[in-house]
Amino acid sequence: DQQVKQNSPSLSVQEGRISILNCDYTNSMFDYFLWYKKYPAEGPTFLISISSIKDKNEDGRFTVFLNKSAKHLSLHIVPSQPGDSAVYFCAAPANAGGTSYGKLTFGQGTILTVHP
Amino acid sequence: KAGVTQTPRYLIKTRGQQVTLSCSPISGHRSVSWYQQTPGQGLQFLFEYFSETQRNKGNFPGRFSGRQFSNSRSEMNVSTLELGDSALYLCASSRPSRPETQYFGPGTRLLVL
């Protein structure tokens, strides 16, 4: 059961433009979401997170939007840079009821390519 | 502050052997989680340790086990290796005040021949 879904396997964007990465979830108990960036042969790097009490969180060029009614979140990168080319994962702590300690449920990832 | 470290970074084993991977969390972090990443299954949760106790376990066979020491360092062991165990094994740690946010190490790439 894929509780966190990233339906776009890849995204190609021109340098300087906006990159929008999407993520959907099915479990309405999820109340916190994270975005990670991953280069090949490296571990995921934490980028930004959002609590369900907010609908937007911003950190520099990265903004995450959360639409709870649609069970949808998106990561906006503005402006996009070639160094942003990586795989992006959205994730949610599966701690509904406090029984899933330390477990993040990940989407399948989206490969972002930013062309110079 | 040093990040999460994992050793070894690369490992080649043959079927039937066993392997032990090590993880040192960020100083002050007490929770350590382990994940397996494969092209077909993505990032899958293995187990989590806190204060030397396993609090949570994913859907992996009993060949996968782990432990945590009093200094929060953790090890995971895979016995009777199978070809399908070839993967990137990632360790992540989190601090008590913000357990939802995990910080990952660089991973151990395991190849089973």
N- to C-terminal distance of chain A: 38 Å
Largest sheet of chain B: 7 strands, mixed
What is the N-to-C succession of helices and strands of chain A? EEEEEEEEEEE
Indicate the radius of gyration of chain A in whole angstroms.
Answer: 14 Å
Structural class, judged by helices and strands of chain B? mainly beta
**What is the residue-mean pLDDT of chain B, rounded to a whole number?**
94
Which parts of chain B are unreliable, with pLDDT below 50 for 5 consecutive residues or more?
A: none
Q: Tell me the series of helices and strands of chain B, N- to C-terminal.
A: EEEEEEEEEEE
| Rg calculated over all Cα atoms of chain B | 13 Å
Strand fraction band of chain B? over 45%
The percent range for helix content of chain A is under 10%
Number of helices of chain B: 0
Question: Which structural traits does this protein have?
Answer:
heterodimer, A: about 120 residues, mainly beta, about 55% strand, globular, B: about 110 residues, 7-stranded mixed sheet, about 60% strand
Describe the structure.
The complex is a heterodimer of chains A (116) and B (113). Helix content of chain A is 0%, strand content 53%. Chain A is globular, with a radius of gyration of 14 Å. Chain B is mostly beta strands and 113 residues long. In chain B, strand 5 and strand 6 form a beta hairpin. In chain B, the strands form 2 sheets. In chain B, strands 2, 4, 5, 6, 9, 10 and 11 form a 7-stranded mixed sheet that branches. Chain B has a 4-stranded antiparallel sheet with strand order 1-3-8-7, with no helix packed on it. Classes of the chains: A mainly beta (116), B mainly beta (113). Chains A and B meet through strand 4, strand 5 and strand 10 of A and strand 4, strand 5, strand 9 and strand 10 of B.
